[in-house]
Amino acid sequence: MRKRARSRGRESEIELDTLADENSARDARIAAEASLAELMQLPPTQRCTVVLKDVLGHSLEEIGEILETSDTAIKGALQRGRESLRQLAAAPRMVSPRPALDRQDMRRLGDYVAAFNAREVDVLRGLLAEDVKLELV
Question: How far apart, in whole angstroms, are the C-alpha atoms of residue 119 and residue 9?
C-alpha cells in the first residue's frame, strides 16, 4: 500500500512539473511576443541600432558601417531607442499586449524572427539596414 501511495505521489509530482514547464514556455513566448511588438513600434533606425548593439553585440563603428552613418547619429538613435523601449515596457498593458501591425510590419517581423532563429546574422543585419535605408528615402 505504501508503494502504491509513493507511486501516486511521484506521478503527481511529474504532472505538476510538466504543467509548470508548459506554463513557463507559454509565459516566455508571451513575453517574447510583447518584446518584439514593442521593438516593432520603434522607428527603423532606432530598432536597427538597438538590435545590432544590444542583441547582436556590434560596436558603434560596425553599426555605422552597416548603416553608412556617423557614430554620433548611431549613439543618438541607440539612446532614443533604448529610452523608448523603457517607456513602452513601463507603460500599463492594454487588453491585448500586441499593437496592431500592418501586413508589411508583420512580414518584416517574420523575416527578422526567421533570420534570427536560423542564426543568419548577415541576413538579419541586411534586413535591418534595408529598413533604415527605406526610412531615409
Answer: 42
Q: Return the residue matching grid coordinates 527578422.
A: 112
Distances (CA, A) of 107 to 14, 17, 53, 86: 40, 36, 23, 25
CB atoms within 10 A of CB 77: 24
Query: Rounded to the nearest 5°, which phi and psi values hold at 118?
Result: -85, 0
Structural domain of residue 16, as residue ranges?
Answer: 2-136
Q: What is the pLDDT of residues 22-31, one digit of tens each?
A: 555 554 454 4
CATH number, domain of 77, equals 1.10.10.10
What's the rounded mean pLDDT across residues 30-59?
80
